[in-house]
């Protein structure tokens, strides 16, 4: 009984296929002796077809990537064979080449390590320079702090002798804070207001019964209100007219007894003169407030167009925080 594989793979080495046809005893000729089954024979035949060899005359790479890989393999095999031949015929030269390759690899590693160490050293030097600058800055700040604190320490030791320096310094700071003007209760408040408007009128007069109002406002509430019953009008230069009035807080005002610092909660400062018509162009002005006869706060009036007969001034919040 004979079996033959149809549709032979064209990639099979023709020499191997020829040998396969004539080696019937080994592969495809069976006489029912049970030693080799037809299935095993067919499997072996398929394996022979399925594994094309590089030395096949009709072998063609199936894609570009495979061709590139085979080219590299061929080169490697060729180089290995050449080196084996060199080792066999001129061993001293092969040893010299190996030593050269090892030396090149060692030098490459040494160069890489040198550059890596150099980069690490440069980084550390940069960090060192930054730390030196930071240290110099801290020294300057420390010197400035010592110059500021030294008088306080001396005063604390003088006013509270026999106590630890931390305790005496704390008591001194508490006393100084208590003496801060913004923490003292409001007993009196006055303000001198000057507003300059754009006007071609030439007026110069004192007006009794036509004064001004000045308020620290928060929302629709007046935290502190000052007023007057008189004002003065005079020209400053051509096209400008100044209105001036000295206003004072009433003794029954709600701000009496509260610390001056509470006025830092004000959202705006507002001025109103009885004699200034509505909608005028305000060119500028200033307000000088005096609390308790000694604490002075100034506010400027910027250029603006009046809303009705109200004039807004800048809010000096920082003056009421003690900073």
Give a verbal description of the structure.
The chain has 323 residues and is an alpha+beta fold. It has a domain of 140 residues: Lipoxygenase-1 (Sandwich). Helix content is 41%, strand content 23%. The chain is built from 5 helices and 11 strands. Strands 1, 2, 3, 4, 5, 6, 7, 8, 9, 10 and 11 form an 11-stranded antiparallel beta sheet that branches. Helix 3 packs across helix 4 and helix 4 crosses helix 5. The chain is elongated and about 130 Å long. The chain starts with 13 loop residues before the first helix and ends in a 10-residue tail after the last strand. The N terminus is likely disordered.
Order of helices and strands, N to C?
HHHHHEEEEEEEEEEE
CATH class of one domain: Mainly Beta
Number of strands: 11
- For the record, give the distance between the C-alpha atoms at the N and C termini, rounded to a whole number: 115 Å
Q: Identify the overall geometry.
A: elongated
Strand content: 15-25%
SS-based class: alpha+beta
Mean pLDDT: 78
Number of helices: 5
Report the CATH architecture of one domain. Sandwich
Largest sheet: 11 strands, antiparallel
Give the secondary structure arrangement, pairings included:
Layout: H1 14-22, H2 38-50, H3 64-89, H4 91-159, H5 165-178, E1 189-198, E2 205-208, E3 212-218, E4 221-227, E5 230-235, E6 240-249, E7 268-273, E8 281-291, E9 295-301, E10 304-305, E11 311-313
Antiparallel strand pairs: 1-6, 1-8, 2-5, 3-4, 3-7, 4-6, 5-6, 7-11, 8-9, 8-10
Task: Summarize, please.
With 323 residues, this protein is an alpha+beta fold.
């Amino acid at each position: 009984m004979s079996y033959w594989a149809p549709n032979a793979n064209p990639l099979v080495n023709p020499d191997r296929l020829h040998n396969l046809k004539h080696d019937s005893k080994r592969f495809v000729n069976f006489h029912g002796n049970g030693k080799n089954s037809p299935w095993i024979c067919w499997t072996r035949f398929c394996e022979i077809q399925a594994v094309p060899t590089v030395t096949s005359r009709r072998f063609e790479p199936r894609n570009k990537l495979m061709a590139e890989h085979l080219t590299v393999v061929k080169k490697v095999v060729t180089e290995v064979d050449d080196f084996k031949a060199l080792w066999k015929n001129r061993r001293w030269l092969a040893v010299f080449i190996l030593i050269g390759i090892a030396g090149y690899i060692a030098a490459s590693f040494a160069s890489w390590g040198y550059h890596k160490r150099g980069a690490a050293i440069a980084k550390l030097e940069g960090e060192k320079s930054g730390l030196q600058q930071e240290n110099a800055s801290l020294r300057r700040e420390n010197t400035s702090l010592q110059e500021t604190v030294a008088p306080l320490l001396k005063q604390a030791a003088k006013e509270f002798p026999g106590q630890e320096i931390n305790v005496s310094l704390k008591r001194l700071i508490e006393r100084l804070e208590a003496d801060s003007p913004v923490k003292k209760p409001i007993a009196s408040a006055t303000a001198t207001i000057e507003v300059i408007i754009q006007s071609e009128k030439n007026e110069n007069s004192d007006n009794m019964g036509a004064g001004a109002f000045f308020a620290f406002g928060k929302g629709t509430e007046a935290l502190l209100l000052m007023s007057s019953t008189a004002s003065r009008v005079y020209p400053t230069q051509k096209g400008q007219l100044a209105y001036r009035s000295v206003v004072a807080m009433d003794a029954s005002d709600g701000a009496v007894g509260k610390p001056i610092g509470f006025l830092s909660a004000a959202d705006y400062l507002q001025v109103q003169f009885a004699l200034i018509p509505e909608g005028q162009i305000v060119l500028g002005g200033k307000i000088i407030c005096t609390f308790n006869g000694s604490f002075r706060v100034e506010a400027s009036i910027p250029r603006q167009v009046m809303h009705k007969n109200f004039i807004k001034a800048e809010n000096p919040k920082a003056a009421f925080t003690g900073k």
